[in-house]
Design goal:
By secondary structure, the chain is of the alpha+beta class. The protein has 10 helices and 6 strands. The protein is 45% helix and 20% strand. It is elongated and about 70 Å long.
Length: 261
C-alpha cells in the first residue's frame, strides 16, 4: 500500500515522497523521516527500541530547541539515554506533561488516534514554465489545460464548486490572483474555463508569465435548483462518458483538440 501511495503521489504531482510503516502514529512519522526524500521505512514491533535508541532526542515529537538544550545539560542526547533517566528530574526540569511524553515516546508508546484531515477547501492545479509564456493565445491554452485538470479532480472528489480562482505570476515574481463566483455550482471543465478566461482577460497580463494556476472552492455553498437542469443532465452524461474513457485509457484517452497542439 505504501509503495502504491508513493507511486500515486509521483504520478499526480511529479514529486517523490517518503513513507513510514509502524505500530503507531509517532513511530510511523519517525519512520517516514528516516530515509528522505524517497524512502520507505518499516519499523516492526520487535525492533522499536533497536531503531529508537541511537537516534537524537530531537527526533521525538515535541522536543524543540529549548527542551533539547535542557536534556543536553542533563547528559541526554540520544533517545536510548532517556530510558535510564530519572523521571522526577525530568519533571522538575521540563514539567509533568513533557516528562510523561518523553517517557512514553522514548519507549515507542503512542496511543493518539490517526484522525483524517478535514475535507479539502479548494481543488486546483498550477504550472511553472521553464520559459516565460508570451501571448494571450498561448496563455489561454494553458488555462484550458488547467481547467480540464481541475474539473476532472472535482468530479473524482464528487463535489461541485461555486468559486473559480486564477493565479498569475510574472517573471519578476509579482503575483496576481483573482476570483469569480459561478452562476451555479459546477464541476464542468467548460464552466471553470470560461470563468478563468474572463478573469485572465480582465487582468490583462499576456506576456512575461512565469506561473499560472486555476483552482475552485466553495464546495459547501448552498446549491439552489437550477433553471437549466435538463442541460446539466446532458453535460453530466457527457462528462461521465469522458471520465470513463480517461479512467481506462489515461488523461489523453479523450481530450480537446486545442490541447493536442
Amino acid at each position: 500500500y505504501a509503495m502504491k501511495l508513493k507511486q500515486e503521489i509521483r504520478t499526480r504531482t511529479g514529486i517523490v515522497a517518503s513513507a513510514g510503516i509502524a505500530p503507531n502514529k509517532f513511530l510511523a512519522k519517525l519512520a517516514s523521516d528516516l530515509e528522505k526524500p524517497d524512502g520507505l521505512t518499516i519499523i516492526e514491533e520487535d525492533r522499536v527500541q533497536e531503531v529508537l535508541s541511537p537516534l537524537p532526542v530531537s527526533k521525538i515529537w515535541g522536543v524543540g530547541k529549548k527542551s533539547n538544550q535542557v536534556l543536553a545539560e542533563m547528559g541526554i542526547v540520544r533517545i536510548g539515554q532517556l530510558l535510564q533517566a530519572d523521571y522526577r528530574q525530568l519533571e522538575r526540569r521540563l514539567g509533568n506533561s513533557m516528562a510523561r511524553q518523553l517517557y512514553n515516546l522514548s519507549r515507542g508508546i503512542d496511543d493518539r488516534p490517526v484522525a483524517p484531515r478535514e475535507p479539502a477547501r479548494s481543488i486546483g492545479s498550477e504550472i511553472t514554465f521553464p520559459e516565460d509564456i508570451q501571448g494571450q493565445e498561448a496563455a489561454e491554452q494553458v488555462l484550458l489545460e488547467l481547467s480540464v485538470k481541475v474539473g476532472w479532480r472535482l468530479r473524482q472528489a464528487g463535489v461541485r464548486a461555486k468559486t473559480v480562482h486564477i493565479k498569475v505570476r510574472k517573471h519578476d515574481f509579482t503575483t496576481f490572483s483573482r476570483q469569480k463566483q459561478l452562476v451555479e455550482m459546477s464541476g464542468f471543465d467548460n464552466d471553470i474555463y470560461r470563468a478563468a478566461r474572463e478573469l485572465f482577460r480582465e487582468l490583462g497580463i499576456f506576456y512575461g508569465i512565469r506561473l499560472m494556476g486555476v483552482s475552485a472552492s466553495g464546495f459547501d455553498a448552498h446549491e439552489e435548483m437550477s433553471l437549466f437542469a435538463a442541460d446539466n443532465a446532458k453535460q453530466e452524461r457527457l462528462y461521465d462518458a469522458i471520465d470513463s474513457i480517461n479512467k481506462r485509457f489515461g488523461s489523453l484517452g479523450i481530450t480537446r483538440a486545442n490541447l493536442l497542439r
